[in-house]
Write a structure and sequence with these properties.
heterotrimer; A alpha/beta (250); B alpha+beta (414); C alpha/beta (312); B: 414 residues; alpha+beta; four-stranded antiparallel beta sheet; 10 strands; globular; C: 312 residues; alpha/beta; 29% strand; binds flavin-adenine dinucleotide
Chain lengths: 250, 414, 312
């Protein structure tokens, strides 16, 4: 079985982003970038399936600028076999990402595609589902467990109020949630080894795809911050204030 | 600011730095912050939980310096020392004692890969790789003599007191080593001993490989240090300790041959020191932006803001010198010896000032063990002594620059 | 033309999230239809038909739709593509799963997690864990939206509107339902509760969650919530997680106990009307967003609050 994993380069989740002074965009200069945390989980799962000999090859794909090769290298250092960079400097929406991944999938013929459930920058939570639709494949979102059995994969999904288990016919697309696994660190020896693993490079035009912007960004704002309130001296004072001042207790 | 400029690093260096930082932020810093009492556990073996070294193992940071042929990692040779610096800084940012533990393995591995016969490399490298708790140590200092060795005073009366004599195909070692990093818990030691009493130490000192379980080797104590307490510094006694003849690494010219170790060692020392400084800055910058005094967060008071600027400036200056010195060592520049001593001594004094500012800016909290700022101060102080004192480092610098005259008057008395 | 809202239900009961999605849908176009897809879900359709502002309810009744699997459901909705200008679902796990699939089938970009409708083609939505609010204009002729339910109040009830069956064409069986495990709770649902009592790593154990926090929640008629650290440590099940990658809540009162206030957690609760933080660390970032902060050991403070309550 061959697995394709999509990985995105995003701002480190521990960094608080700010707008450019003129509000025209997000100030990314000098910010620490990293692999989208959910994608790390997807890579980890693929590598585990590879180590269990359930998968024979793990291909990682990233769509973005040259710098995204660093994200691919991280995935290779975690244990993926080879990388594919689809190079574009333009901002790119999930719909176009899905189209490019579909094109790559048609060429690479994976049996399973893993993605993070959402990217922590645009918080869209769309790409995997769109890709599944475009390929006409089954989808399993928010996976917290998965087991490959023959030509199907059983996925436990984190859903509101509990969990749901579904069985998907392969090939399928799965988006992963935080509790699927704990991703390994890219170890120093593996980082050096990853240097020798191949990364192919393509342009969207190679697939005959024009990257378009369906959404126009009209405005960006930082939400009005909440102001710190007061410190109360005791539990009794707290209850009293919640009742008389805030009016949230009857 | 404060951190290494990404643009100056290769892709691999950035990824390595990121892995180290993730490990430190996920495992080391939380451990240190929530277990401040552990430093004072008086059973040294228990102090650092095994899980921390096991964690270090998952990022492969314990065995740098081991050649790839032996299952280690081949760093880019022309930037190896810079990479060492980058990584030791990151680990020390979490805990400098842990960094001490690990870097001793790298430094001694370099010596082994250079000087140990192949069959001994085949024997020891796999053992080192297999056991996350396996540590190495480098034994030079004796109760009488460390500064002399660094300078070095190349006269017979300054020679090593520890002696090794070849008898029946075995080297028999007698003597005592003190202040040895990892000395208390290492599994394998590189030991320096006099093998020719008639000449100066540069001509008469040899180095040996001594496994911990060799009869005649006794680890007599763990030195309880003021800082870097998660590294167990130890004292060793050799009494008719016999190692096979092939355990000789370098005969007679061991001190000169160890240059590779010493230079990388000084850079790593400075880089760990820098990591302590970065931790001081991060903690302090965070504190002064949140802690309110006189109705304003501290940083709004000009006196506080100025101290923070001073901390940042010193850190950047230390970083610049380390970068220049480590590049010089990587490139074999003629000034490399002076530069790496400069980096080491400058880092130790500047970061001490940075730590002092951190203590000051934390007010009374700075003095409290559970706050962890005084730990950084204690850790910083250790660097004033480790791998040569401040004054001896300065002597080395000036002797390199003016070999014919500098310090000549301060020679041994007749 | 009109807007189609996908109803969220469990076959028996219409979820309150649907009423909230209807409120958002009306702002896109006043002609709102609701689609109830499932098996034997007439009661749900009847309930949906009573939501104010809904002009009609479509019901698709088929065994293949019983488990709300995304593949048939998306096919059904996309098949109605000609008839609608916009498709709206609450940003629940099912809405989030099916709607992007619909969008791709219609070749349009979905707008996720809408918190305000400024015009039929202009929407506000949070990005970067709510640290930035983005206003976007869709250039697509059809709109596909998921709605952050905490940002819209539920549409009230009124007299019933007509219910019409809609034809469903079965497709290939790509996926099948195996099992469902629902956490059972007598407490109010997290995303719609008026009061949420949340616990973090500071609670220390599952037993403490039950013994210390649950009594306060019950006394207040509140839902229980948790930080990711508490969930990861196994104190409570994962459906209680509040945050960027958990539930987004905006109750009248949010009480955070032993939660430090990481930005990912704040992303899930900072729109609450009143926030209370109880933490023993005076430096904990949670205090920067709390209206009322109590620096105290929660094991003492929480029972004291409980005792200070009128009914307690
Ligand atoms: C934490 C720690 C870890 C260490 N790890 C190791 C290790 O792994 N391996 C190892 O071999 N050693 C190790 N050492 C020993 C270290 O290298 C020595 O402590 C250091 O070089 C100083 O030597 P000393 O203690 O003998 O001091 P001394 O040489 O006794 O120095 C005392 C004072 O005299 C001054 N002084 C001495 N000679 C001269 C001179 N000729 N001219 C001017 N001033 C002079 C010194 O500058 C200093 O101020 C470690 C030490 C510490 C503190
Ligand atoms: C061992 C010990 C014993 C003590 N014993 C006692 C005792 O018996 N009784 C008692 O009452 N207290 C005692 N203290 C408290 C001590 O007096 C305070 O810790 C000290 O005055 C510093 O105050 P702080 O901790 O609030 O620091 P802060 O005032 O918060 O100072 C933090 C930093 O901000 C700077 N700073 C603060 N305000 C300004 C400003 N306006 N302009 C410029 N810089 C500013 C300070 O210089 C410092 O660098 C003790 C403290 C210690 C460590
Ligand atoms: C991609 C990504 C997504 C994430 N998504 C989420 C998410 O959706 N939701 C989420 O919550 N987190 C999320 N996180 C994790 C988040 O970064 C924090 O790690 C987490 O919120 C911390 O949980 P906590 O506050 O319970 O634990 P800690 O940060 O450990 O805080 C525990 C707090 O309890 C206090 N405390 C301890 N004992 C007591 C006591 N006896 N009395 C009073 N106070 C006490 C301590 O002072 C401390 O402030 C995410 C992280 C990433 C990287």
């Amino acid at each position: 079985m061959r697995i394709m994993v999509a990985v995105k380069r995003v701002v480190d989740p521990n960094v608080k982003v700010r707008l450019l002074a003129d509000g025209s965009g997000i100030d990314l200069t000098g910010l620490k970038m990293t692999m989208n945390p959910f994608d790390e989980i997807a890579v980890e799962e693929a590598v585990r399936l590879r180590e269990l000999a359930i998968a024979s090859e793990v291909l990682v794909v990233s769509i973005g600028p040259d710098k995204a090769t660093e994200t691919l290298r991280t995935a290779l250092a975690m244990g993926a076999d080879r990388g594919l960079l689809i190079k574009t400097d333009a901002p790119i929406e999930p719909l176009s990402v899905a189209k490019l991944l579909r094109a790559a999938a048609i060429e690479e013929k994976p049996d399973l595609i893993l993605l993070g459930k959402q990217a922590i920058d645009d918080d869209c939570n769309q790409t995997g589902q769109m890709l599944a639709a475009q390929l006409g494949w089954a989808q399993g979102t928010f996976a917290s467990n998965l087991a490959v059995e023959g030509d199907a994969v059983t996925v436990t999904r984190e859903v509101d109020g509990g969990s749901q288990t579904v069985r998907l016919v392969l090939p399928a697309v799965i988006t992963v949630d935080l509790r699927l696994n704990e991703p390994r660190y890219a170890s120093l020896p593996n980082i050096m080894k990853a240097k020798k693993k191949p990364i192919a490079e393509r342009q969207p035009a190679d697939y005959g795809i024009v990257v378009e912007q369906r959404l126009e960004i009209v405005r960006l704002e930082e939400p009005a911050g909440r102001l710190a309130g007061i410190k109360v001296g005791s539990a009794t004072e707290l209850v009293e204030r919640l009742r008389s001042e805030a009016g949230v207790l009857s | 600011m404060i951190y290494a400029d990404d643009g100056s690093l290769s892709q691999e260096q950035r990824l390595m730095r990121d892995s180290c930082r993730a490990f430190v932020d996920d495992a080391v810093t939380p451990f240190i912050r929530s277990n401040w009492q552990r430093e004072w556990d008086m059973s040294p073996g228990e102090r650092l939980p095994r899980s921390i070294l096991e964690g270090a193992e998952t990022i492969g940071v314990r065995t740098l310096g081991v050649p790839e042929a032996h299952g280690g990692v081949d760093l880019e040779h022309d930037t190896e020392v810079r990479t060492f610096a980058l990584i030791s800084e990151e680990i020390a940012r979490g805990d400098s004692g842990l960094a001490d533990k690990l870097v001793q393995n790298w430094k001694v591995s370099i010596l082994l890969r250079e000087f140990a016969p192949k069959h001994l490399q085949d024997k020891w490298f796999p053992r080192l790789l297999a056991d996350p708790q396996f540590l190495l140590a480098h034994c030079l200092t004796e109760p009488r003599g460390a500064s002399d060795r660094w300078l070095p005073y190349n006269v017979p009366e300054a020679a090593m007191h520890t002696k090794a004599v070849l008898k029946d195909g075995h080297w028999v070692i007698n003597g005592r080593k003190q202040f040895i990093s990892n000395g208390f818990d290492a599994s394998l030691y590189v030991v320096y001993a006099n093998t020719d009493t008639s000449v100066g130490m540069l001509q008469g000192t040899s180095s040996f490989l001594v496994p911990r379980d060799t009869p005649g080797l006794t680890v007599t104590k763990c030195n309880e240090t003021m800082g870097c307490r998660f590294m167990n510094n130890g004292e060793l006694v050799f009494e008719d300790c016999r190692v096979p003849a092939d355990h000789l690494l370098v005969q007679n010219t061991a001190l000169g041959s160890a240059g590779k170790y010493f230079r990388a060692g000084k850079i790593i020392q400075a880089a760990k020191n820098l990591g302590v400084g970065v931790a001081c800055f991060e903690r302090t910058a965070d504190y002064v932006q949140n802690y309110v005094q006189g109705g304003r967060i501290l940083i709004k008071h000009q006196a506080v803001a100025l101290r923070l600027a001073d901390m940042a400036t010193r850190i950047e200056a230390v970083r610049s010198l380390i970068e220049r010195a480590s590049r010089a060592v990587d490139e074999g520049h003629p000034d490399m010896d002076a530069l790496c001593n400069m980096a080491k001594v400058y880092a130790s004094e500047e970061i001490m000032k940075v730590a002092t500012h951190a203590l000051e800016l934390h007010g009374g909290n700075g003095a409290m063990l559970e706050f962890g700022i005084e730990k950084l101060f204690r850790d910083a102080a250790i660097f004033l002594h480790m791998d040569a004192t401040v004054d001896v480092s300065r002597m080395k610098i000036i002797k390199t620059m003016f070999p014919a005259t500098a310090g000549k008057y301060a020679g041994p008395e007749n | 033309m009109s807007v189609l809202v996908l109803a969220e239900h469990n076959g028996l009961v219409l979820d309150d999230a649907t009423a909230r999605a209807v409120t958002a849908a009306i702002l896109v176009d006043p002609d709102v239809h609701v689609l109830v897809a499932g098996r034997d879900c007439g009661a749900v359709a009847a309930r949906a038909a009573m939501l104010a502002g809904v002009a009609k309810v479509l019901i698709a009744d088929d065994g293949d739709l019983a488990d709300q699997l995304c593949e048939p459901l998306a096919g059904l909705i996309a098949g109605l593509g000609e008839r609608y200008d916009a498709f709206v679902a609450p940003a629940t796990t099912s809405g989030k799963s099916v709607m992007p699939r619909v969008a791709a089938l219609l070749d349009v970009m979905q707008i996720s997690d809408v918190i305000a409708v400024e015009a039929p083609d202009r929407f506000r939505r949070p990005i970067y864990a709510g640290n930035i609010i983005q206003t976007v204009r869709s250039r697509d002729s059809k709109k596909v939206l998921t709605i952050r339910t905490s940002a819209f109040s539920p549409a009230p009830s009124e007299h019933a509107k007509p219910i019409e069956p809609v034809n469903f064409q079965r497709g290939p069986h790509l996926s099948s339902f195996v099992a469902k495990v629902m956490a059972r709770s007598d407490r109010p649902e997290l995303t719609s509760a008026r009061i949420v009592v949340s616990g973090g790593r500071g609670l220390g154990s599952a037993e403490n969650f039950e013994a210390v926090l649950a009594p306060l929640a019950d006394a207040l008629g509140a839902a229980l919530g948790a930080s990711r650290a508490a969930v990861d440590a196994g104190f409570v099940s994962n459906d209680l997680q509040v945050g960027q990658t958990g539930k987004i809540v905006a109750p009248d009162l949010y009480i955070a106990c032993g939660i430090s206030g990481a930005i990912q957690h704040l992303a899930g609760m900072k729109d609450s009307k009143v926030i209370v933080a109880i933490n023993k660390d005076p430096e904990a970032p949670i205090f920067q967003v709390a209206d009322y902060g109590l620096v105290a050991d929660l094991f003492e403070a929480v029972p004291e609050i409980r005792a200070a309550m009128p009914a307690g």
